[in-house]
């Protein structure tokens, strides 16, 4: 696919603004996913075994922020290399973790929707169809990379 410098700039620029309250955004992101797909909560080990309420779980925010950061990085790589490159060892691990926990295509779709909604609410004054498309493509290509490694690890 072709990912332009303008598209990369849209992603990087909006992320720079959101970064300041990424923790809060991360929490919103997670809650949106569970609003649409409550059963997805069961996939996360740190939620299953937790005694504290969902919103107070200390692992939620950092986990969700990782997804934002990786999607943003994927935009940079798409422009530079025309594809998403995650270090092979970490990509293998990402694939294995998502395979083992039972993540399926629908989860990736719900997560994409929740990601774009969260972004739209975070930077309403910047949001545009072009920005939505740029983030959406970066996410989609990252998912392609993860899915290639979603198979039994041995
Ligand atoms: C774990 C990223 C999509 C569910 C992880 C980890 C990362 C990550 C970095 C930690 C892996 C590790 O422990 O080393 C991503 C990215 C995604 C994505 C970048 C999309 C572009 C999804 C989706 C779901 C999901 C769609 C399901 C709704 C999980 C679960 C774990 C996990 C259940 C294991 C959590 C645990 O119990 O420790 N993901 N993920 N992920 N992800 Fe994702
Ligand atoms: C996917 N994988 C790991 C953590 C996540 C947090 C929020 C949304 C999606 C995620």
From TrEMBL:
<dbReference type="Pfam" id="PF00042">
    <property type="entry name" value="Globin"/>
</dbReference>
<comment type="similarity">
    <text>Belongs to the plant globin family.</text>
</comment>
<keyword id="KW-0479">Metal-binding</keyword>
<keyword id="KW-0813">Transport</keyword>
<dbReference type="GO" id="GO:0016491">
    <property type="term" value="F:oxidoreductase activity"/>
</dbReference>
<dbReference type="InterPro" id="IPR012292">
    <property type="entry name" value="Globin/Proto"/>
</dbReference>
<dbReference type="GO" id="GO:0019825">
    <property type="term" value="F:oxygen binding"/>
</dbReference>
<keyword id="KW-0561">Oxygen transport</keyword>
<protein>
    <submittedName>
        <fullName>Non-symbiotic hemoglobin 1</fullName>
    </submittedName>
</protein>
<dbReference type="InterPro" id="IPR009050">
    <property type="entry name" value="Globin-like_sf"/>
</dbReference>
<feature type="domain" description="Globin">
    <location>
        <begin position="2"/>
        <end position="151"/>
    </location>
</feature>
<dbReference type="InterPro" id="IPR001032">
    <property type="entry name" value="Leghaemoglobin-like"/>
</dbReference>
<dbReference type="GO" id="GO:0005344">
    <property type="term" value="F:oxygen carrier activity"/>
</dbReference>
<keyword id="KW-0560">Oxidoreductase</keyword>
<dbReference type="GO" id="GO:0020037">
    <property type="term" value="F:heme binding"/>
</dbReference>
<dbReference type="InterPro" id="IPR019824">
    <property type="entry name" value="Leghaemoglobin_Fe_BS"/>
</dbReference>
<dbReference type="InterPro" id="IPR000971">
    <property type="entry name" value="Globin"/>
</dbReference>
<keyword id="KW-0349">Heme</keyword>
<dbReference type="GO" id="GO:0046872">
    <property type="term" value="F:metal ion binding"/>
</dbReference>
<keyword id="KW-0408">Iron</keyword>
């Amino acid at each position: 696919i072709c990912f332009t410098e303008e598209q990369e700039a849209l992603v990087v620029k909006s992320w720079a603004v959101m970064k300041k309250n990424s923790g809060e955004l991360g929490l919103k992101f997670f809650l949106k996913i569970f609003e649409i797909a409550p059963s997805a909560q069961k996939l996360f080990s740190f939620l299953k075994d937790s005694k504290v309420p969902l919103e107070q779980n200390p692992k939620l925010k950092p986990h969700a922020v990782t997804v934002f950061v990786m999607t943003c990085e994927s935009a940079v790589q798409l422009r530079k290399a025309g594809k998403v490159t995650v270090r092979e060892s970490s990509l293998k691990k990402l694939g294995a973790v998502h395979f083992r926990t039972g993540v399926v295509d629908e989860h990736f779709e719900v997560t994409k929707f929740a990601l774009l909604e969260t972004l739209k609410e975070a930077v309403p004054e910047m949001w545009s169809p072009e920005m939505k498309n740029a983030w959406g493509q970066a996410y989609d290509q990252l998912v392609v990379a993860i899915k290639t490694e979603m198979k039994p690890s041995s």
